[in-house]
Amino acid sequence: MTHWLTLCLLPPGDADEDGDNRISEQEFVNVLSKPQAVTALTSLGVDVEAALDYGKLLFEDGEPLTFGDFMKGILTLRGSNQTTVKDIVDLRKFIAEEFSETDHILREICGFLTGLFLCFLCLGRGVDCNWLWAL
């Protein structure tokens, strides 16, 4: 089945535009815009619109994927797949990491805004506020 998918989705030199034997996010989008790829994926029960959205997560780190990783990610989008405990655990881990990163960013922003507010208070009273930025 993988050989057939390779022929349908990735004709030689067609999808791997830069010849690195990996699929970049742009190459992924280009492949999913081809009618033959849409037909092949649809026949496997893959929601192609969801695949386009899912691509943002597949390429979140900006790195291209091997064909195997690409197909593994795409085939998880088949409507016949059932949710497993591992899927829920992976989702929980992903959400926890995203919230942690968001919390970190918000704390940095709050610290900066607090310093800026204190600086404005100092300047309003004619006091030098350069010492604030050394904290």
UniProtKB/TrEMBL annotation:
Matches recorded under InterPro entries: EF_Hand_1_Ca_BS
Name assigned to this protein: Calmodulin
Annotated source species: Durusdinium trenchii
